[in-house]
Amino acid sequence: MTTTDELARILHWVQVGVEDPAVSPAALAARAHLSRFHFDRLVAAATGEPPGALRRRLLLERAAHRLTTTDRTVLDVAVEAGYGSHEAFSRAFLRSYGASPTLIRRRRPLTFRELELPCPSGVHFQPPGGLRLPGTHEETAMDVLQHLVDHHVATLSAVIERAATLDDEVLDRPVTVSVETIDDRPTLRSLINAMVTQEEHWLSALRGGDWPDESDRSIAGLSARHEAAGRDWRAFVARTLADGTLADTFVDTTCSPPTTHTLGGAIGHVITFAAVRRTLAIGALRTAGITDLGAGDPRPYLDARAN
């Protein structure tokens, strides 16, 4: 059985090989202070793939990411992946993906996870330049729901504990709604934009992309942006729940520095912060005389779908 430390050491050298395809397998083994034979055996035992096949697969996954997130030429991507010609790369790519590099570039995936090639280990290229390991356990939708409830109960306990340090005048003072930890001076337009951008942001992070363009804040523009982002976000969540991969991790490349999150963590984040913004937005509509959305309580929605 390969220990976690041993696996991390092995994958470090695998990543070196991905970062520099020109490094020969023998040179990689030497850098790891192992014989080529022993190095190959360790990699195969840890990942279920021969080192050469593992390296080629990871390089192709990185190439697929480059094709779908940059405007670099196919030849540039091919050379970076260690291929000597456009034709050789295209043949290898077609054999693995069942589609040409040009077609993959035109057919943007929902998230980069869709471009991960089948493998026994669950080790994949992780944008912008690392390796992703599978979750240590399977986490279901019920697990995440329970975690959200636990988070609420624990946070409420913390609020009460801190409130105990305040005097009665502060405790009984009328509350001015504060969203300082979420938004600065929110308006109805900015709240709607923040909710739409939240969908776009996490989808972009899951694709290994940059912060989304949120310049069109007209109601027509917000509607069009949400139509696309809401559809894709819902599809991503549904697929993640179906696959049981809520504990899997990804690197948020929109942050500086890039930050690692779990898929379940990202979903829980969106549910929580969107709920605050949605409640404020519905309140702003009510102030403007639009009351048909009620309080925005999800209970009637969930009740109706349980019948």
Question: How would you describe this protein?
Answer:
There is one protein chain. The chain is mainly alpha-helical. The protein has two domains: 4-132, Arc Repressor Mutant, subunit A (Orthogonal Bundle), CATH 1.10.10.60; 141-306, Up-down Bundle (Four Helix Bundle (Hemerythrin (Met), subunit A)), CATH 1.20.120. The chain has 13 helices and four strands. The strands form two sheets. The chain has a two-stranded antiparallel ribbon. Strands 3-4 form a two-stranded antiparallel ribbon. Helix 1 crosses helix 2 (25-31). The N and C termini lie far apart (49 Å). The relative contact order is 0.09. The mean pLDDT is 85. InterPro entries: AraC_XylS_family_regulators, DinB/YfiT-like, Homeodomain-like_sf, HTH_AraC. GO terms for molecular function: DNA-binding transcription factor activity; sequence-specific DNA binding. Keywords: DNA-binding, Transcription, Transcription regulation.
